[in-house]
């Protein structure tokens, strides 16, 4: 049983790596194993994925490239889950980065990067090879972004979490159609598990896959 | 690669490769120093191992801190740079808007005069029942151009509104996007506005009146640009000072939130201002 992740009541909780501080007003509980923060599936797509049956657990020392970090809601929980890992957190919205910097100031395993994920060469000098890419970007070309970053940074056999929001890609098309089309484009990725994130997030598909170069 | 990329490459090369690429503690200065100090070479292999482990434990934290600090500094620096650019772009569009307003004021007046005279001529022609082709179309063209200038003005305003809501959401909420942008322009940027005291913000844009007051002993200006704000415009003259003071101090707070914290709209601010306005107006 992973010590950094707990089920308490209906909720899931992660062990706070920055005790005394919260990020988005989440619930905090003291346990015999330390302080735990509630991981809200309505706020975090990864929490929703876990709620819907994902049983993958981060290794403690995992190196992660996180694309679309925003203000750090999900980043903070991933940071909780791998205290000895590295989370390179990319976003291109200035205000989001400023908040992310504040929110993760005391988290030594989070490294904020202000850059456009569509142009991985702009941060290639900052990031080494990673074991995992987590992507949740509100961008029309999100599939292309995943492919570019995977080929630049992801090790062979590395894993990806890909949160697809159909409305970002094509509002006029039915979500199912958009998902099918994007999945076809994912050559080199073996899908291990996929799940729609209703009722937590409408018209979102979460994909967990392995990458083979 | 464009110029920007090359600049960044060099920047990274200098700053990053020294620090970040060295993932192994073996390569750091500290370790080399310590090696010398403890003359690792003289130690037995087992001792060597233990010593190395100690060094590693002692310095891995240092290394991680440096790395963390480095990423934070770099990201903050680049973000601030970009925000400054965005601020500059807003300031420039406000300059254009000001010029456009002045030109439109002038043009409107002279074109109107021209149009009214043309109309009189037309009337006269009609009375004399002359049926000749009138004018060269110059007036019509001018009127069209004038309309298109007004459209241009609208589109610049829309641009400023959109940018301001992203760039300075709190100032936009309190002062309105256009007035907010004018204040940023007057101050010389968001950073400068965020560092001005409320009393200065209150008279920002009233520099001329302020000068008169200094020189000729006129009454001091109560408010500058913020006079445009509906809260002041729609308040009786004798109560404007109080509202201007409150408005200026609220804008000062909004500017600080926008510059320092990057927070989205902060609800309490507007409510507090509205309460004060009601109080002063006494209804
Ligand atoms: C839905 S939010 C991510 C929320 C976050 N993953 C969480 O769960 O806490 C999407 C983010 O993607 C970012 N984004 C969109 N396009 C991007 C790009 N090309 N490069 C970097 N970030 C991008 C946006 O700025 C936004 O912050």
UniProtKB/TrEMBL annotation, chain A:
What Pfam families does the database record attribute to this sequence? Fibrillarin (PF01269)
This protein's UniProt keywords: Methyltransferase, RNA-binding, rRNA processing, Transferase, tRNA processing
- What is this protein's function? Involved in pre-rRNA and tRNA processing. Utilizes the methyl donor S-adenosyl-L-methionine to catalyze the site-specific 2'-hydroxyl methylation of ribose moieties in rRNA and tRNA. Site specificity is provided by a guide RNA that base pairs with the substrate. Methylation occurs at a characteristic distance from the sequence involved in base pairing with the guide RNA.
Q: What class of enzyme is it?
A: transferase
Biological source species? Methanohalarchaeum thermophilum
Provide the residue positions that the database annotates as binding S-adenosyl-L-methionine: 73-74, 91-92, 116-117
Q: What is its EC number?
A: 2.1.1.-
GO terms, molecular function: histone H2AQ104 methyltransferase activity; RNA binding; rRNA methyltransferase activity
A GO biological process held by the record = tRNA processing
> What is the protein's quaternary organization?
Interacts with nop5. Component of box C/D small ribonucleoprotein (sRNP) particles that contain rpl7ae, FlpA and nop5, plus a guide RNA.
Put simply, this protein is called Fibrillarin-like rRNA/tRNA 2'-O-methyltransferase
The superkingdom of the source organism is: Archaea
Q: Which InterPro entries match?
A: Fibrillarin (IPR000692), SAM-dependent_MTases_sf (IPR029063)
Homology family: Belongs to the methyltransferase superfamily. Fibrillarin family.
């Amino acid at each position: 049983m992973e010590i950094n992740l707990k089920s308490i009541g209906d909720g899931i909780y992660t062990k706070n790596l920055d005790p005394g501080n919260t990020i988005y007003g989440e619930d905090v509980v003291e346990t015999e194993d330390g302080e735990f923060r509630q991981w809200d599936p309505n706020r975090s797509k990864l929490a929703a994925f876990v709620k819907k049956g994902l049983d993958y657990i981060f290794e403690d020392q995992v190196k992660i490239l996180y694309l679309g970090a925003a203000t750090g809601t999900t980043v903070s929980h991933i940071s909780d889950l791998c205290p000895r890992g590295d989370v390179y957190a990319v976003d291109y919205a200035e205000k989001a980065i400023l908040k992310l910097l504040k929110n993760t100031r005391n988290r030594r395993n989070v490294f904020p990067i202000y850059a456009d994920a569509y142009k991985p060469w702009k941060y290639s000098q900052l990031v080494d090879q990673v074991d995992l890419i987590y992507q949740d970007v509100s961008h029309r070309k999100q599939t292309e972004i995943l492919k570019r970053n995977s080929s630049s940074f992801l090790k062979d056999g590395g894993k990806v979490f890909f949160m697809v929001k159909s409305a970002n890609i094509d509002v006029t098309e039915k979500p199912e159609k958009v998902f099918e089309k994007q999945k076809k484009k994912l050559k080199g990725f073996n899908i291990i598990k996929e799940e729609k994130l209703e009722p937590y997030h409408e018209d979102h598909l979460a994909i967990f896959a392995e990458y083979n170069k | 690669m464009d110029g920007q990329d090359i600049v960044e490459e060099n920047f990274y090369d200098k700053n990053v490769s020294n620090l970040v690429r060295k993932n192994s503690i073996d390569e750091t200065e500290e370790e080399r120093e310590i090696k010398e100090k403890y003359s690792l070479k003289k130690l037995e292999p087992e001792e060597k191992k233990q010593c190395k482990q100690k060094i590693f434990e002692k310095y891995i934290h240092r290394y991680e801190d440096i790395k963390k600090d480095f990423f934070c500094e770099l990201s903050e620096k680049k973000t601030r740079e970009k925000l400054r650019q965005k601020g500059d772009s807003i300031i420039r569009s406000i300059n254009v808007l000001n010029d456009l307003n002045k030109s439109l004021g002038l043009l409107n007046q002279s074109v109107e005069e021209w149009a009214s005279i043309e109309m009189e001529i037309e009337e006269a022609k009609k009375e004399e029942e002359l049926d000749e082709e009138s004018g060269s179309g110059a007036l019509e063209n001018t009127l069209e151009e004038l309309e298109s200038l007004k459209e241009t003005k609208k589109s610049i305003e829309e641009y400023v509104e959109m940018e301001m809501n992203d760039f300075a959401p709190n100032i936009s909420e309190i002062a309105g996007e256009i007035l907010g942008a004018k204040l940023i322009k007057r101050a010389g940027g968001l950073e400068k506005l965020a560092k001005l005291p409320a009393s200065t913000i209150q008279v920002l844009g009233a520099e001329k009146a302020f000068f008169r007051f200094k020189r000729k002993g006129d009454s001091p200006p109560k408010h500058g640009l913020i006079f445009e704000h509906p809260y002041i415009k729609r308040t009786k003259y004798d109560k404007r000072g109080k509202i201007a003071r409150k408005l200026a101090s609220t804008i000062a707070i909004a500017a600080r939130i926008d510059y320092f914290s990057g927070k989205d709209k902060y609800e309490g601010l507007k409510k507090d201002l509205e309460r004060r306005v009601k109080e002063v107006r006494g209804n």
